[in-house]
Specification:
Layout lengths: L1 H12 L7 H12 L8 H30 L1 H6 L1 H32 L7 H12 L2 H4 L2 H30 L9 H35 L5 H6 L3 H4 L3 H26 L11 H13 L1
Helix pairs in contact: 1-2, 1-12, 3-5, 5-6, 5-8, 5-9, 8-9, 9-12
């Protein structure tokens, strides 16, 4: 996905030159050759590996933690809220590891002559902007990633429920592991589309911010109109949809391979069923 990400960033950073995803690929190939499309692969791979590990790991921790606080019945009734809170908490922590890599990636991809590798980019950022050069994009990164991750986990969990309830012709317990993983990928792709949409304006701000010295997120955002904020959305939907589907597929596949618990979609607790039956009986 690095080539798509590179073109997306260039569309956001210089929309006058890069008119769209296909035009962006064409110009990048003509001017720099095919090797240029891999620019930024190292910070992308390292940064999002760190972030993914933190995000998925802490999500499970916070989901259990918050679930115990509010209890079994409320955990089911307000499960979407539970998913949103757990994922937001996880992302706050995960982005601290991502921010330095994101800063280097954007510089490599959008600032010609700055650096071509992570090894070159980091010392330059440190020399020119100090430690804050790595974290000046943290707040807008949270602005992008927290809504993104909240949508990613909540929409995935609820899409899985919908697929098993209305689309898959048999209960999850009767599906093979392969069929279950296919449902996981489909739900992940749908979640990724929603993720890309809710987080794209902040993503554009981050691209511009890391490209420009001495600017703040508010200054960058004020300088852009709505059309500019949504530049590169097509490339990002394709990239994020595919990545999110694959992330969930790999995550669930790892659980299958390691024989880790894979809880089915949540069902109403018996205690809550009895309460509802009692209420309906009184009527």
């Amino acid at each position: 996905m690095t080539p798509v990400d590179l073109v997306k960033c260039r569309i956001q950073a210089n929309s006058d030159k890069y008119k769209g995803i296909f035009n962006g690929f064409k110009i990048s190939l003509e001017e720099e050759g095919s090797r240029a499309l891999a620019r930024g692969w190292a910070p992308t791979a390292i940064g999002y590996s760190i972030q993914g590990f933190g995000k998925f790991g802490f999500y499970e921790v916070f989901k259990v933690f918050y679930g115990k606080i509010i209890g079994e019945e409320k955990s089911y009734t307000y499960r979407t809220f539970l998913y949103l809170m757990a994922s937001a908490s996880a992302e706050v922590i995960a982005d601290i590891g991502l921010a330095p890599m994101e800063a280097a990636k954007v510089k490599i991809q959008t600032s010609p002559g700055f650096a071509s590798t992570l090894r070159e980019a980091w010392p330059k950022i440190l020399h020119e902007e100090g430690l804050m050069g790595f974290y000046k994009g943290l707040v807008p990164l949270w602005m992008r990633q927290i809504p993104y991750t909240m949508m990613k986990f909540a929409s995935f969990e609820r899409t899985v429920e919908v697929l098993y309830k209305y689309v898959v012709p048999k209960p999850r317990a009767e599906c093979s592991k392969g069929e279950q993983l296919l449902v996981t990928f489909a739900a992940g792709y749908v979640a990724g589309i929603f993720c890309a949409i809710v987080s794209h304006p902040a993503d554009t701000v981050i691209t511009k911010l890391n490209q420009t010295k001495g600017s703040t997120a508010i200054e960058v955002a004020k300088a852009m109109d709505m059309a500019t904020l949504w530049k590169g959305i097509t490339a990002r939907i394709f990239m994020i949809g595919t990545l999110t589907g694959l992330q969930w597929f790999i995550y669930d596949g790892f659980k299958v391979a390691a024989r880790l618990p894979r809880p089915p979609p949540p069902t109403m607790p018996e205690s809550l069923k009895k309460k509802l039956e009692e209420k309906s009986g009184k009527r």
